[in-house]
Amino acid sequence: MRWPHFHEDLTSLVTVGVLAEAAAELDRARFRCAQAYEVLTGVRDRLDRVLDDAYGVGSFRPIEDLFREEEAALAKYEAAVARLAASRERCAGLLSALASERELMRQPCSRHRIH
């Protein structure tokens, strides 16, 4: 996504709708990240128990699928963390743009005043 240059296009104002959408996406990203972490933790707990059992029996052969499941859960968690970071960055950018717009509107008769 390319962020607009606000000095080039003064019609790109931050609206309440855009801010609400970004906040909702941030909430969804937080939820997905927490969900992915819970899945990853559950898989790792099962893996620890199976490893303990396999060590006691002396055979590690049946745990390959569990290792693949752990790798998949880790990949989903890492993707969720990346989406969360992007959502946080978007919200921060929007809030910064909103603050700049408000500051420009407070300035009397500025050349860069937003109409």
Task: Output the number of helix runs.
Answer: 2
Helix coverage percent: over 70%
Computed CA radius of gyration, to the nearest angstrom: 24 Å
Strand content: under 5%
Distance between the termini: 26 Å
Q: Shape from CA axes?
A: rod-shaped
Question: Secondary-structure element order, as H and E?
Answer: HH
Number of strands: 0
Q: How many structurally independent domains?
A: 1
Low-confidence stretches: 1-10
* Global structural class: mainly alpha
Largest sheet: none
Output mean pLDDT.
84
Would you spell out the secondary-structure blueprint of this structure?
Elements: H1 16-57, H2 64-106
Helix pairs in contact: 1-2
How would you portray this structure in words?
- With 115 residues, the protein is mostly helical.
- It has one domain (16-106).
- Helix content is 74%, strand content 0%.
- The protein contains two helices and no strands.
- The chain has helices at 16-57, 64-106.
- Helix 1 runs antiparallel to helix 2 (64-106).
What is the gist of this entry?
Helix content is 74%, strand content 0%. The chain has helices at residues 16-57, 64-106.
